[in-house]
Amino acid sequence: MLKIEDIHVSYGKVKVLFGVDLEAKPGEILCLLGRNGAGKTTAMKAIMGLLPLSQGKILLDGREISTLPAHEVPKQRIGYVPQGRRLFAELSVAENIEMGLMACGSGAETREWVLELFPRLRERLAQQASTLSGGEQQMLATARALCLKPKVLLLDEPTEGLQPSMIELIRNVIVQMKREGLAVVLVEQRVDAVLSVADQVAFIEHGRSVETLAADELKEDPDKIHKYLGV
Ligand SMILES: Nc1ncnc2c1ncn2[C@@H]1O[C@H](COP(=O)(O)OP(=O)(O)OP(=O)(O)O)[C@@H](O)[C@H]1O
């Protein structure tokens, strides 16, 4: 479904991606693992068209999307929950969801679907986003991305800094999205969390894809984790 082929990306003159290849398939969770600064977030931003590629391409269902302007990428039904959530802090929960729906012309049915996934948001529709707890903000950011009815969902460290009950809740939604046939790409630091949900694990080292393997293979060969992450 989503194919990233040999992408190279720079911030100004500083090159940070030197060849990243990934493939996210429907009904699967692909986890990106790598040390701090390896380039995981940069790869997600590049997929969303937020950073230009100096080499390589990104394809969705065989069609190149890396030539599209950034505002067209979500319309291809690629949902993105960036690290740090980026909500409209001054707006209410309902208004944040409305912004997500408007972005791609979704309606009441989609609104109902996301509120069923996150009942806690329904209880807080009038509350200002900035006053939500960290876990609730993560729910809202995820709900907003799901308003696109995405085929592909990119999540950058969605459980960072959350308490265990919230982590469990977010994790359940991610697994549910996989079951609904979405291709999920997840950046996650915690190896145990990766191994419990991932189908495929892609290691990125110093801006390069070094190895992608099935999560089951990784469980049988945990030395790889030490090799690439030093833990
Ligand atoms: N806006 C920027 N300008 C210049 N360099 C940047 C910028 N953003 C990131 N970098 C650099 O690019 C490299 C990759 O960063 P990136 O955030 O993609 O890594 P990461 O694997 O997501 O790390 P982490 O696990 O710490 O979130 C790092 O060396 C970082 O310092």
UniProtKB/TrEMBL annotation:
CDD domains: ABC_TM1139_LivF_branched. This is ABC-type branched-chain amino acid transport system, ATPase component. GO terms for molecular function: ATP binding; ATP hydrolysis activity; branched-chain amino acid transmembrane transporter activity. Pfam families: ABC_tran. GO terms for biological process: L-amino acid transport. The keyword ATP-binding applies. PANTHER family: HIGH-AFFINITY BRANCHED-CHAIN AMINO ACID TRANSPORT ATP-BINDING PROTEIN, HIGH-AFFINITY BRANCHED-CHAIN AMINO ACID TRANSPORT ATP-BINDING PROTEIN LIVF. Residues 2-231 form the ABC transporter domain. Gene3D superfamilies: P-loop containing nucleotide triphosphate hydrolases. Keywords: Amino-acid transport, ATP-binding, Nucleotide-binding, Transport. The keyword Membrane does not apply. InterPro entries: AAA+_ATPase, ABC_transporter-like_ATP-bd, BCAA_Transport_ATP-bd_LivF, P-loop_NTPase. SUPFAM superfamilies: P-loop containing nucleoside triphosphate hydrolases. Belongs to the ABC transporter superfamily.
